[in-house]
Write a sequence for this structure.
């Protein structure tokens, strides 16, 4: 199972770094996608990083404000979020896709593992 951390209550314009890790398998072999679900809304893909060539993908809503990255030594994938807005308020989940190329970041189906989520609240 994946474990997310790094969420919290912040003010508009602040930054957060979300982490996704596991002790059970090697994340390097998985594409990792970050999803989020805002109150009363469907879950949506935010960003992903491929297992192979490190290609990255971003939703338009976070492009230019978010950076996804890996630290293989720590078996962790990060999502750095800057210039946070109230509309970024959501529970953020990471999901793992074995040997994935990250291109399915808009889809919820077909992931091997999911985390329980970390809550991000951005106040105006």
């Amino acid at each position: 199972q994946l474990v997310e951390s790094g969420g919290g209550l912040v003010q508009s314009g602040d930054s957060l770094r979300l982490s996704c890790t596991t002790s059970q398998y090697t994340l390097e072999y998985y594409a990792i996608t970050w999803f989020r679900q805002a109150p009363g809304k469907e879950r949506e893909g935010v960003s992903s990083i491929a297992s192979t060539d490190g290609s990255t993908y971003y939703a338009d809503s976070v492009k230019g404000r978010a950076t996804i990255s890996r630290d293989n030594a720590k078996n962790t994938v990060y999502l750095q979020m800057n210039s946070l807005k109230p509309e970024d308020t959501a529970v953020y989940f990471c999901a793992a896709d074995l040997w994935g190329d990250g291109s399915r970041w808009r889809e919820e189906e077909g992931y091997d593992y999911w985390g329980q989520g970390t809550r991000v609240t951005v106040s105006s």
